[in-house]
Design a protein that fits this description.
This is Parvalbumin. By secondary structure, the chain is mainly α. Helix content is 54%, strand content 6%.
């Protein structure tokens, strides 16, 4: 399974275009433009598994930095500021990583 099995390639491209400039990434806007916010809970879990590069059951800060590259090879790396803001938005239990439930809640909020 790949992200394009769940999300439209044109929506992914539009979401990536919207945040090309450093420090322009907004997770809420990305989720909306890419169509993620309209997906079911099970589809969000599938997306989470694809983004969880090391299959640890969590998306850690190191993986989050490369979030955009999981959608398209060659996309930019998130800045340190963007990565920390993204992590803080989802990490409700303060463990320094995003679990599947936290991710789902963030995407649907």
């Amino acid at each position: 399974m790949s992200l394009t099995d769940i999300l439209s390639p044109s929506d992914i491209a539009a979401a990536l275009r919207d945040c090309q400039a450093p420090d322009s990434f907004s997770h809420k806007k990305f989720f909306q433009i890419s169509g993620m916010s309209k997906k079911s809970s099970s589809q969000i879990k599938d997306i989470f598994r694809l983004l969880d590069n090391d299959q640890s059951g969590f998306i850690e800060e190191d993986e989050l930095k490369y979030f955009l590259q999981r959608f398209e090879y060659g996309a930019r790396v998130l800045t340190t500021s963007e990565t920390k803001t993204f992590l803080a938005a989802a990490d409700h239990d303060g463990d320094g990583k995003i679990g599947v439930e936290e991710f789902q809640e963030m995407v649907h909020s």
